[in-house]
Amino acid sequence: MTASSVVVTGLGVVSPNGLGTQGHWSASRVGKSAIGPLTRFDATPYPAKLAGEISGFAAEEHLPSRLMPQTDQVTRLSLVAADWALADAGVNPAELPAFDMGVITASSAGGFEFSQNELKSLWSKGGEYVSAYQSFAWFYAVNTGQISIRNGMKGPSGVVVTDQAGGLDAVAQARRQIRKGTSLVVAGAVDALLCSWGWVGLGTSGRLSTEEEPSRAYLPFDDRAAGHVPGEGGALLILESADSAHARGAEVYGEIAGYAATFDGREPGLRKAVELALADAGLAASDVDVVFADGAAEPELDRIEAEALVEVFGERGVPVTAPKTMTGRLYAGGAALDLATAFLAMEEGLIPPTVHTEPAERYGLDLVVSQPRAADVRTALVLARGHGGFNSAMVVRS
Amino acid sequence: MSRSTFTLDDLKRILLEGSGAPEGDGLDGDVLDTEFTDIGYDSLALLETSSRIEREYGIELDESVVGEATTPRAFIAAVTGHLTVAAA
């Protein structure tokens, strides 16, 4: 880690496996799955019936009354995750110059349930019944905006929309801004689409598992793989320059050491993203202690990911895991949560497992299944792919 | 539903329903002449409030009300003016 490194000093986790970092990690480290039947609405008429829902989240216990009529579930989760991340980093934003702090999040869909309710009002009662807050509550950038307003952060901010690669792309964009001189950036992603309209939208991907037994529903790298289970949540991270973290005596989880993004062309771009991220980190494949896989659980996508990993690391050359088998895929939030989980894995020296999967031999992966694996984890590679050809890879080091 | 009077209590109720309670003293005490921004409501909260008043009272407020009525007293006067027109 050098003085110009970009480091992570705080984590804010809102996961189906637990609210808060400790809750999420204590469940994930032992392979506890949060996937179960959808309860948020009646899923009976829909082909997919399972989800990774966040339970026990009472937004009004965490947020002021003024924010409630103007926020979707995803924004409430994002605001609380940001509060927790800042507290974890020991940062009080009111004490810092407004223009030295930024917010960069990713979003795959914005505030869906809020929009669903307003569209219902529009078509059943008329335009005069649509909330004025619909003007921004639906928007991809709304989480960034609300976090910025709540914490008085007026530095470089934005939103990245690259489907499920977004969780990494947002953190990479935050790293760029810190390198250009911003002291602190709240970065990452939370998504929450578990309403009937969101469900219909997700279903159009053709990638949702229609299995009704949770232990058979989301099985990446398994011969039975037949789609994924959607979940809600994600993570926000506090990024700072190593210099400024050191200056204020902050505890550091680790460094954002390397990153690359590619787009699928004639050939899948995932392997190239891995190679470029390693090069960006100045590391060799043999330096990587664990890979957090994208784990699409689509046979073709699993094959592409497994081939990329075998080509870069060799057959069974590196431990691979997909903790998202416990939460479902959280869309943009998924890779951000994987980043947080990677730092927690480093802290404890334990790789959380891929649950329920029986890995197909032909993939040639050393998949950490069933049980967590004790390991000295100093360097982790996190992979994420978005619908339409997005590939992102990020290397983090303790 | 059309009604003939619009009071500070009506305004407070509709603000709370549509935009939530501001932090601090907010709507407590004598706020008739306090700027909405000082109470804790921005222009969007007033837009939402005027939309709810239109629905509840069956009136149509001029768009200028939201921009020009920056205190509860001015807002109530503007709404009352419309109620009078509607009743006439």
From TrEMBL, chain B:
SMART domains: PKS_PP. Residues 5-83 form the Carrier domain. This is Putative Actinorhodin polyketide synthase acyl carrier protein. Keywords: Phosphopantetheine, Phosphoprotein. The keyword DNA-binding does not apply. InterPro entries: ACP-like_sf (IPR036736), PKS_PP-bd (IPR020806), PP-bd_ACP (IPR009081), Ppantetheine_attach_site (IPR006162). GO terms for molecular function: phosphopantetheine binding. One of its GO terms (biological process) is antibiotic biosynthetic process. Gene3D superfamilies: ACP-like (1.10.1200.10). The lineage of its organism: Bacteria, Bacillati, Actinomycetota, Actinomycetes, Kitasatosporales. Pfam families: PP-binding.
